[in-house]
Every structure is written in structure tokens, then in C-alpha cells.
Amino acid sequence: MKNIILVILCMQFWVATTQAQEKPTIVVNTFKTAPEVSWPYDMKELQRQVVAELQNKDRRLYNISVEAPSSGSHYLTLGVEVLEWHPGNAAKRALVGMGTGRESAKIRYSVVTSEGKKVFEHEDIIRTEFYASAYAGSVGQLVHPLADKIGGRLADAKLE
Fold first, then answer.
1. Exposure string (b/e) for 50-87, b if CB count within 10 Å is 16 or more?
2. What is the pTM of this model?
3. What is the DSSP letter of 23?
């Protein structure tokens, strides 16, 4: 009987400690552009909205923030660079349709540990959503597809 109680207590302790393990924290840096890229949007606002989208999409996997934790704990840093930007063509969208003429950007993003070791890097081309209609002047129509693409890749990477 005492052995059974001891085993039950040990199992409860094990379950409590595994559930209490902290999710990795990802600090999102202000986005950058390559030197030759003309980018019309406010990078700080884009960062803020992508953080909100990532918190909504990946909150069960990561703690997402714009500032490093003050406790000195281990954290990861997400850096995003816009390599190319194409504004799209409204006439093509109206005449041809079917997703042609959409705004697009080529981006590179990487995750670096607090010690400076790169643990993940990827390049993607993002486009406005097929039937995009929500336009925010400071970030355009790319914020949701950008956050969606990054969030999906980070979830697949299983960062720790």
C-alpha cells in the first residue's frame, strides 16, 4: 500500500514538473530591409502587428515579445529582413484577376539564441491574400500573410 502511494505521489510530481516547463520565448526584432529595397511601410508598426498575429497563432508553443526577458533566462530572437518588394498592379488585378498583380515581398528570417547561435533560417516569398481587402496604410496587406508564413515555419521547426 505504501509503495502504491509513493508511486502515485512520484507520478503527480512528474506530471506537475513537466507541465510547468516554460515555453521558449521569442523576441521579435524590428524588421530590416536590404539596402536596395524600397519599402513603403512603417517597420515598427509591422513588427507590432506581426507580434500580435504570432501571439494569436503560436501562443501555445512560444511566448512572443518585443523585449528580451529581464530575468536573464534563455530566449530566442527572430530577425526579419525584406530582400525584395513588388507593389503589385491594380490594373492587372482588375483585368486578369485570379491572383495576378498582387503585392509581394521576398523575406529572410532567422532565429538566433541569446548566445548568438543561429538555430533557424529561411527565405520565403509572401503575397497578399487571394481576396485581400483589408488595407492598413502603415503596413499594407502583407502583415497577415507575413505572420502566417513565419508562424507556420517556426511551428514546423520545433524550436526550444
1. bbebbbebbeebbbbeeeeeeeeeebbbbbbbbeebee
2. 0.74
3. P
- Residue bearing the bigger pLDDT, 91 or 48: 48
- The C-alpha atoms of residue 98 and residue 20 are separated, in whole angstroms, by 48
Under 8 Å between Cβ of 75 and 25:
yes
> For the chain, how many structural domains are there in total?
1
d(CA 26, CA 106): 22
Q: What span, in angstroms and rounded, lies between the C-alpha atoms of 128 and 48?
A: 18
In a domain, 93, yes or no: yes
Q: Which domain covers residue 41, as residue numbers?
A: 22-157
pLDDT tens column, 115-138:
889 999 999 999 887 665 554 555
29 burial (CB, 10 Å; 0-12 / 13-18 / 19+) is middle
Q: What is the CATH number for 96? A: 3.40.50.10610
Q: At what angle do helices 143-157 and 43-58 cross, to 10 degrees?
A: 50
